[in-house]
Amino acid sequence: MCGARFWNIHDPPAEFEITSYTTFGSQPERMPSAMASGAPAAFAACDDVLAAIATRVYRLGDRPGQGSKIKMINQLLAGVHIAAMAEAMALGIRAGCDPNVVYEVISNSAGGSWMFQNRAPHILAGDYTPLSAVNIFVKDLGIVLDSARKLTFPLPLTAAAHQMFLATSAHGHGGEDDSAVIKMFQALTGIELPEGAKK
Question: What mean pLDDT is predicted for residues 170-197?
């Protein structure tokens, strides 16, 4: 253990963040990854600790704040991909496609994404038990938009996704799994979601 020297990596948890990602390929299990910024000496002192708590360590340089910024970018993409997944599945249902077939084909097509493969099964099962709630993305995408506003940077896709999550929350589904954002389309268009979705 490095003791107090470990915390020479800037101001955790904001600048030393442990996040979980899921990878494709031969290792589909969840693997913890660490993002950290700090002086080279701090990293050297804590190599063993970092190796023990993460399978992959991203060194972001010595400037504070980099981990939080990259995590924000990840949340932007996660939220937009979930919203796009819900929109695509809702359109498929409205067009009369079998949602199970939509899932199978898109999961093996260029239009697929990790979020599509991970979240669409919740819709197919009609199971909105929260693994990550709609309200999490109301909050996280709000933070992304606030940060971008301070940089005078437009985020039209993020803004649209944020409104989708916000509308879903306003409709009473904020505590449900984030895939429940598809229920916004159900409310607007009357589409029938897979069995159990109305529970």
Answer: 94
For the CA atoms of 117, 66, 181, 94, the dihedral, rounded to the nearest 10 degrees, stands at -50
Q: For residues 107 and 188, what is the distance between their CA atoms, to the nearest angstrom?
A: 26
What is the overall mean pLDDT for the chain?
Answer: 84
All domains in the chain, ordered by first residue: 3-64 (no CATH), 68-189 (1.10.1040.10)
Confidence of residue 146 (pLDDT cuts 50, 70, 90): very high
130-144: average pLDDT: 97
Higher pLDDT, 21 or 139: 139
Instruction: Yes or no: say if 33 and 54 are a contact pair by the CB < 8 Å rule.
Output: yes
Which one is catalytic: 69, 71, 183, 199?
A: 71
- CA–CA dist 98, 143 (Å, integer): 36
The set of residues, in sequence order, having a beta carbon less than 8 Å from that of 133 and lying 6+ positions away, is 174, 175, 176, 177, 178
Per the CB < 8 A criterion, the answer to whether 115 and 86 are in contact is no
Residue 31's DSSP bridge partners are 21
Asked if 68 and 14 touch (Cβ cutoff 8 Å), the reply is yes
71 is catalytic: yes
- pLDDT tens digits along 43-102: 788 888 888 888 888 888 888 778 889 989 999 999 999 999 999 999 999 999 999 999
Which of 157, 81, 75 is CA-nearest to residue 119? 81
